[in-house]
TrEMBL record:
Protein name: HPr family phosphocarrier protein
Domain (HPr): residue spans on this chain: 13-71
Signal peptide span: none
Origin: domain of life: Bacteria
Length: 82
């Protein structure tokens, strides 16, 4: 089932608050820039699990905010990184 427009917009807005690179990984070779609303709208589904990678100066804050927004919309995500 496709995710709601609200969840796509919320994830995108939160991601764009940070300078860190925020990438969702779907499958072995599909990467989505969380700051790209087009990328999110084409690939964000509720029944899929995502892997989140964040790199940059505000990584800790971005990680907490991204995990919160995914939980708010009942989307499955795991953080991979430091």
């Amino acid at each position: 089932m496709k995710s709601s427009i609200r969840s796509i917009v919320d994830i995108n807005m939160i991601a764009n608050k940070f300078t860190s690179s925020i990438v969702l990984i779907v499958g072995p070779d599909h990467y989505i820039d969380a700051k790209s609303i087009l990328g999110l709208s084409m690939t964000l589904y509720r029944d899929r699990a995502y892997h989140l990678q964040i790199h940059g100066p505000d990584q800790a804050e971005a990680k907490a905010a991204m995990l919160d927004v995914f939980a708010k919309h009942n989307l499955k995500v795991e953080f991979h990184g430091e």
